[in-house]
Design a protein that fits this description.
Elements: E1 6-9, E2 15-18, E3 24-27, E4 49-51, H1 57-60, H2 63-70, E5 73-77, H3 78-86, E6 94-97, E7 102-105, E8 108-114, E9 120-121, E10 124-125, E11 130-136, E12 141-144, H4 153-161, E13 165-169, H5 178-188, E14 192-196, H6 208-218, E15 222-223, E16 231-233
Parallel strand pairs: 3-4, 4-5, 5-6, 12-13, 13-14, 14-15
Antiparallel strand pairs: 1-2, 1-16, 2-3, 7-8, 8-11, 9-10, 11-12
Helix pairs in contact: 4-5, 5-6
């Protein structure tokens, strides 16, 4: 890896990244109602960008409040962006895009990819779910898969984007479980994997230790299992 970024898992699928240019990025900021988010991280006061994978409330979470308080730009698929604007997001803060598209924000570029899931916001259709490829200028790439099932697209994303770090859901029930996530990791071939979307609620039973063992037995890769609120430097 050619650069240094910092990543913090905030519980569930929420992550905070700090870019080499010191830009703070939140992904799927389900925080105030998230039982796994540390109290010190439930209120985010300095945020430059919010990136959303899809509209479900355990992913959009505190987006509108954080955007209002910080002026952060909010990137999402076009239908979800429209709903957020209906609900109070200032139009100038909205970054609308769709799958296959890329946009450069500060010192990184975001590409929206496929995810195999569903998406709604408050019972309203919110477009399709997505994953996010975040490519930093100094050539480290982070892939947040969003909520997804196993799909052959992971092999394509390895070929197209070669993510250094891949964040994969493992919880089962609403997303793929450990068995599927291990196969996804084998297709992606990233240097580092971070599991997410597990343990937040009793139904999300996927074991990060089982994921770690399966991936590290199959690949020359590392699986990191941080505690919510701990920084990872890459």
């Amino acid at each position: 890896m050619k650069t240094k970024i910092k990543i913090m898992w905030l519980g569930h699928s929420a992550f905070k990244l700090v870019s080499p240019a010191e830009k703070t990025i939140l992904i799927d900021p389900f925080l105030s109602q998230n039982p796994k988010t540390p109290e010190s991280e439930k209120n985010q006061k300095a945020v430059d960008f919010i990136l959303l994978t899809h509209g479900h409330e355990d992913h959009t979470g505190d987006t509108l409040q954080i955007a209002k308080e910080t002026g952060a730009k909010v990137l999402s698929i076009v239908e979800l962006s429209g709903l957020l604007k209906q609900d109070g997001l200032v139009a100038e803060q909205a970054v609308e895009m769709n799958k296959g598209g890329s946009i450069t924000l500060a010192d990184f570029t975001v590409t929206m990819t496929n995810a195999n899931h569903s998406s709604s916001l408050g019972g309203r259709y919110a477009g399709e779910p997505a994953g996010l490829i975040i490519s930093f200028d100094d050539d480290i790439t982070v892939y947040h898969a969003g909520d997804t099932n196993i799909m052959p697209d992971f092999d394509l994303y390895n070929t197209l984007y070669t993510p250094d770090v891949s964040i994969l859901p493992i919880g089962d029930y609403y997303t793929m479980g450990v068995k599927e996530a291990i196969l996804a990791a084998e297709m992606l071939q990233s240097d580092v994997f971070l599991p997410c979307h597990y343990g937040t609620f009793p139904v999300l039973t996927g074991s990060p230790q089982d994921f770690k063992k399966g991936v590290e037995d199959a690949l020359n890769s590392r699986v990191l299992i941080p505690k919510p609120g701990d920084w990872i430097s890459l």
